[in-house]
Each structure stands twice: as structure tokens, then as C-alpha cells.
Design goal:
By secondary structure, this protein is α+β, with helices and mostly antiparallel strands. The chain is 17% helix and 43% strand. The chain has an 8-stranded antiparallel beta sheet. A hairpin with a 7-residue loop joins strand 3 and strand 4.
């Protein structure tokens, strides 16, 4: 069973998310794991990092993490978007074949979900409830999974930490 082991606020400057956009039609067995495998197979993470010419960690503390960015477009649960990529500084040029979304400076409410890899996905409502319990107000229909290399490697118990993040007031 997954549990939240940390909930906190991070402040970030204006950012541009660069990646690729997917919809429910792109799911395989209800998940986007096949799209992540495609990213690794095609070397798209390395291609982006090499093209940026700067250290993503300079953007904010966890800026070097891989991102699964999500939203229900126009607040409609039938218009789900799932993006894979990186947050980059504002106005970063977008390589051919990739798309982007711009975000103003804001605060992020982050929750660390701790558990077996197959138990930490799809439980955003748990993270949302924790942030609201902590007094944070969600201000956007965007949220994201943050795959931080140091936290996403199984520990001695076989557990990982997945960051679930929302934009907050």
C-alpha cells in the first residue's frame, strides 16, 4: 500500500514544458508505459537535454526530473492530455517534432508517494487530498508526475518514491 511520506511547497519561476502530447487513445492497457518506453528507445530525453545547453537542475531543485504532465483540458475529464518531457526555462527554443506549454511563475505542491512501483500510479486524489489538508489551494487543471532519478530506484524493500505535484496558491 502506498503512503505519502512528504508534502511541501516549491516556488518556481516561469517555465516552458517541452515534450510530446498524448491522449487516452495512446494508452496501452490503460497506461502510458509504452510511450515512456518509446522515449527511452528513441533517446528523446538525451536529445532534449543535449539540445538545451544548460543544467536543468538550475531551473529549480528538482528540475532535472523526467515529467509526466497531465490535465483535463477545459476541465472536461473526457479531454485528458498526458505529456512526457521536461520543464525548461521560459522561452527555450522547441526542437522540431516536440510541442510545448508555457507556465507563469507559481508554487508547486509536491507529495512523495512511497510504495511498490505498481502501487504509486493513478492515486493523484490521495496527493490532492493531502495538499488540501495542508491548506494549499489547487489553482490549475494541470498536475504532474515527477520522476526523480534518486527517488525512483527501488530501495531495499522494493519501494520507490514518485512525486505527484499540483500548481497551488
Amino acid at each position: 500500500m502506498s503512503e505519502i511520506i512528504k508534502a511541501y511547497k516549491q516556488s518556481v519561476g516561469a517555465m516552458r514544458f517541452i515534450g510530446k502530447r498524448y491522449t487516452d487513445a495512446d494508452r496501452v492497457n490503460g497506461m502510458f508505459g509504452a510511450k515512456w518506453a518509446e522515449w527511452w528507445k528513441n533517446g528523446w530525453f538525451d536529445l532534449l537535454k543535449n539540445q538545451f545547453g544548460f543544467n536543468l537542475k538550475d531551473l529549480y531543485e528538482d528540475g532535472d526530473a523526467f515529467i509526466g504532465l497531465m490535465r483535463h483540458k477545459d476541465g472536461d475529464h473526457r479531454n485528458f492530455e498526458y505529456w512526457i518531457g521536461y520543464f525548461t526555462p521560459a522561452n527555450t527554443p522547441v526542437p522540431e517534432g516536440f510541442q510545448y506549454q508555457d507556465f507563469p511563475p507559481m508554487d508547486i505542491g509536491a507529495c512523495w508517494l512511497y510504495g511498490k512501483e505498481n502501487e504509486v500510479y493513478g492515486i493523484e486524489p490521495m496527493a490532492l487530498a493531502k495538499l488540501e489538508e495542508e491548506g494549499y489551494e489547487i489553482i490549475s487543471d494541470w498536475w504532474f508526475e515527477r520522476y526523480h532519478l534518486m527517488r525512483n530506484v527501488p530501495d531495499k524493500k522494493g519501494n520507490v518514491i514518485l512525486d505527484i505535484c499540483f500548481f497551488i496558491k
